[in-house]
Amino acid sequence: MGKDTEYVIHTSHLNVELPSLGYRNVKKITVEGAVGEGVGHTMAGGVIVVNGNAGANAGFALMDGTIILNGNTGSHLGAAMEGGTIIVNGDAEEAVGYGMYAGTITVNGNVGPGIGLMEGGKITVNGNVCGAVGENPYDIESDMNTMKGGEIHLNGDYGTISDGIEKGKIYHKGKLIVDK
After folding, report:
1. Is the dihedral of CA 47, 114, 111, 53 positive or negative?
2. CATH, residue 126
3. pLDDT of residue 83
4. What's the pLDDT score for residue 39?
């Protein structure tokens, strides 16, 4: 809520990682160091650049703006995302795009299982996917057990593609391999 349009935050000297940094952000924030869970939660615009790792739920319910993570991130990257852009120049854990409606996620490293339990938007993985694509990796019942829309672009290797995909497109190295 400050008056400036740009901020630089240093976190490397802290003993704890800051949770929900950039909540409802509309400014330009650069973070030098790691951040905790929920960076950019319900962000409405602006840019957040993290020069370090991020915890789980980065970009949760992102509405607009850009998040650039120059490190690795935890699970549920872009969960419930409604718009905007997330770029990860590292690896992401499981459930990338869980419940995603719109927007764009690019992971330039590897991702864990359960990618693409989404209803819309676009996910690109330039590394490998460890495990299933379009399938819930958890043993719990959920409304998001499979891919229900959107696009996934896989540019590396992957484990399996779910047989239960309801709707959406999946490309592997530019070739369409699922179109429902």
Report:
1. positive
2. 2.160.20.60
3. 98
4. 98
Q: What is the pLDDT of residues 53-105, one digit of tens each?
A: 999 999 999 999 999 999 999 999 999 999 999 999 999 999 999 999 999 99
Domain that holds residue 130: 1-180
Domain count of the fold of the chain: 1
CA distances from 125 to 42, 50, 62, 106, 115 (A): 23, 19, 19, 6, 10
Please give the structure tokens belonging to residue 56. Answer: 């789980």
**pLDDT tens profile 58-67:** 999 999 999 9
- Residue 44 to residues 20, 33, 137, Cα–Cα distance (Å): 14, 23, 30
Give the list of residues 6+ apart from residue 172 with CB closer than 8 angstroms, or none: 154, 155, 158
